Amino acid sequence: MLLEIDNLSIEYRTKRGQLHAVSSVSLELSARQALGLAGESGSGKTTLGSAIMRILPPEGTITGGSILFDDRLDLTTVSAKELRNIRWEYISMVFQGAMNAFNPVLTIESQIAEALIVHTDASKKVALAHAREMLELVGINASSGGSYPHEFSGGMKQRACIAMALILRPKLIVADEPTTALDVMIQAQILLLLKKMQAEFGIAMIMISHDLAVLAENCDRLAIMYAGQLVEVGDTQDIFTHPIHPYTQGLLLSIPKFGGSRKLIPAVKGSPPSLLSPPRGCRFCPRCPIADEECDSIVPQLEAVNGNRKVACHKKDYGGDAWRE
Fold first, then answer.
1. 45 with 39: CB under 8 angstroms?
2. Hey, how many other C-beta atoms are within 10 angstroms of the C-beta on 9?
3. Which of 103, 135, 187, 299 is most deeply packed, by most CB within 10 A?
């Protein structure tokens, strides 16, 4: 197994108290596999991705659990020096804000080449040449490498971010909302590029997004997060054709469909709970149409259902659609 996250919990220190951003999350990722991490804003997706890279903000703390990489390294306990060797060479990240991912006073090619210079014996000349090759690989003319970030469009910056993440051929890429703020055509190009690069280099990928259609097209497996916890994990096709958790069902019903009868899209009423003081039972209980006393008082565990599917719900045997009469 390339990545094993076991019972991981993360908290943020705030003026109002400890915010439980991620609670007891367990996930597995095989080599060459693409895993989609979905959920509404504030569900803990980016926090989980940042924890894998160990780039949480100063207020964030891993309070429990482990992140085992390549069956040998627990990323929660390795030293800062070891982390510098691991980042970019073994695990890299495509950040959410490509507009702000580059130093404005350095050329694009010099910033892409930096990882090669730091992690290998390559000279600056060789590293810059390789950076230009990577730019060509992601569809940017090598002669543009000497440009500064403000001279690149949003789509070009995102492509350059991907080139930077791939330059050392890591085993794992964490792509955090890689198509944010891009128009639809550029989004499609970036997603196609990520899929092509992953297949070409044999890289595993965790793609973080709230767009289920994007994840369906690009990921083998899907993990649904709600209020800092995993509620459902399984093969993408299985989850789309037969969602089990009421929250997953609600998410999928929110996707407009072409054709068929015209009708209002069911809404998941209410709002996610405050993570400063989350509910004592299931965190989705206040919004769930089939919740009962057990849901209100006991935290459901992520348990295997139908082979490699896992669901955290006391009503996982309900067998119906929670949002339709």
1. yes
2. 18
3. 135
* Amino acid occupying residue 77: T
| CB-CB contact of 179 with 154 (8 Å) | no
Mean per-residue pLDDT over the chain, rounded: 90
From the list 214, 241, 256, 222, the residue with the least C-alpha distance to 321 is 241
Contact 53, 41 (CB under 8 A): no
How far is 164 from 85, CA to CA, in rounded Å? 16
Which residue, among 6, 193, 166, has the nearest Cα to 90 in the 3D structure? 166
What type of residue is 197? M
Give the list of residues 6+ apart from residue 150 with CB closer than 8 angstroms, or none: 104
Q: What is the pTM of this model?
A: 0.91
pLDDT digits (tens, 9 = 90+) for 120-139: 888 999 999 999 999 998 88
Residue extents of the structural domains in the chain: 3-219, 226-311
Query: What superfamily does domain 3-219 belong to in CATH?
Result: P-loop containing nucleotide triphosphate hydrolases (3.40.50.300)
Residue entry with tokens 């627990």? 74
* CA 53 to chain CA centroid, nearest Å: 12
